[in-house]
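Researcher: Quick test of sequence recovery. Tokens follow.
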């Protein structure tokens, strides 16, 4: 599987592409200008999460109007396709990757953005971004063999540090509270 397909096939890869497009939009527009791509995803993901019963709320000035805004995945695809992409650098790829990891929700269903990014209607728009990033050549290192001699393994000095996975919550609480009860 090539890098383009790897990026398109999973949540984290699609999020890397999304974060790259968002960074491109942010760079092209002033801080105080409307950011149509960012706004469209905000409203579209809110609608996805609200419709499936996620615990989301929109409040504050304009919230009543905001709850009624609908953005289709086709509109999102057009906005992604129309966004002029930044020159690819190691720094922007690193930031996009970091943001992808920060947004990971392995313990629960994907958020509205990740749900939308998986929509077939966005595939071509995201494919353009993936191909652009891969064409830079900066992603080749992602598939390079790992030199295990440069990897590190951390071991704690204590045999069983407080709060480790081998301790039970009640045992930790009991040992913490011993002698402090009145």
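Model:
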């Amino acid at each position: 599987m090539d890098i383009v397909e790897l990026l398109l096939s999973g949540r984290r890869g699609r999020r890397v592409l999304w974060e790259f497009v968002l960074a491109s939009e942010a760079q092209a527009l002033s801080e105080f200008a409307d950011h149509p791509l960012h706004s469209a995803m905000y409203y579209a993901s809110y609608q996805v999460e609200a419709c499936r019963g996620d615990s989301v709320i929109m409040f504050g000035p304009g919230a009543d109007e905001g709850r009624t805004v609908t953005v289709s995945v086709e509109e999102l695809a057009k906005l992604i396709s129309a966004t002029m992409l930044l020159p690819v650098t190691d720094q922007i790829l690193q930031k996009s990757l970091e943001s992808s990891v920060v947004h990971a929700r392995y313990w629960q269903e994907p958020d509205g953005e990740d749900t939308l990014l998986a929509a077939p209607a966005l595939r071509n728009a995201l494919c353009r971004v993936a191909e652009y990033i891969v064409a830079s050549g900066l992603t080749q290192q992602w598939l390079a063999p790992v030199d295990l001699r440069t990897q590190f393994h951390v071991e704690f000095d204590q045999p069983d540090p407080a709060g480790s996975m081998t301790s039970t919550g009640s045992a930790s609480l009991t040992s913490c509270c011993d002698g402090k009860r009145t």
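The chain has a mean pLDDT of 86.
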